[in-house]
Amino acid sequence: MQIESLTVSMFGTNCYIVACPESKEAVVIDPGAEGKSIIGKIKSMSLEIKYILNTHGHIDHIGANGKLKAEFKVPILLHEKDLDVYNNPGFGLGLVLKKQPMPDRFILEGDIISFGNETLTVIETPGHSAGGVCFHSGKLLFCGDTLFAGSVGRTDLAGGSFDVLIQSISEKLLRLPPDTIVYPGHGPATTIGDEAETNPFITGNYR
Prior knowledge:
Elements: E1 2-8, E2 13-19, E3 25-29, H1 35-44, E4 48-53, H2 59-62, H3 65-72, E5 76-78, H4 83-87, E6 105-106, E7 112-115, E8 118-124, E9 133-137, E10 140-144, E11 147-148, E12 151-152, H5 162-173, E13 181-184, E14 190-191, H6 192-198, H7 200-203
Parallel strand pairs: 3-4, 4-5, 5-6, 10-13
Antiparallel strand pairs: 1-2, 2-3, 7-8, 8-9, 9-10, 11-12, 13-14
């Protein structure tokens, strides 16, 4: 699996272009902003985009959905429980975002997204938002704002719950192999093993 990461938006969001090297089919995960740059990178890699995937509906993860959909004419996938925040994505901070195209398909736990010879499986991980999801393949995990290196997603926004987030991480993500590489929505990559051992929100040493 070929992975390219671009840091976009004023929030420093990680947008991932994930491709099958053999077929050149690919998906884009969380195109938060700077659509022209993302499109340019995709074209420079000679990829055929199959889907736009959103880990959740916040402004910094969906802001270039419209530009990419207009360019590539592909479906947008989102969990239905994040539809409200997707349609009102400004965090309540007065941020203005051009309305994005409606999702074409709602995804659920266990759904498999195929592109070329590669697949990503949906893992529902609410807590940062009501409809937060991760995309998993083998020992790779694209987790949006569920889990970060040394931290976790904020839970003070609509649909957020700290207890639900920690439950999602404990019951879903920590059961993955320790050497699973975690590609978060912000900041550097990490591993499940490192976070299980050192992340203060997981070990309980954050207080």
